[in-house]
Amino acid sequence: MKKVILLFAILSMAIANVNAGDKKTNYRNALILAYSPVNSVFEDENIKLEIYDEQLWATNKTSKTIFIDLSQCFLEHNGSSYPMFTKETNEKKASKKGVTTSIDEFITIAPSNGRKQNATFICNMSGLFYGKYSTTESPSKDFSEYDKRLLQIVGELVEESLAGDPKGKKYIGTATRHLTEDESISNIGAAIAYAFNKRAEEWTNIALSTWVCDITFSPYYVEMPKDIKKKEQKGFGIKESAPAKIHVRADTPFEFDEDKSPIVVADWVGDFKKGTFDLTTTRISKEKKVNPILAGLATIMTGGATAYLIEKLSETFYKSLIQYDGANEEWGKHKKVDDIQS
Question: Is the pTM higher than 0.70?
Answer without folding.
Answer: yes
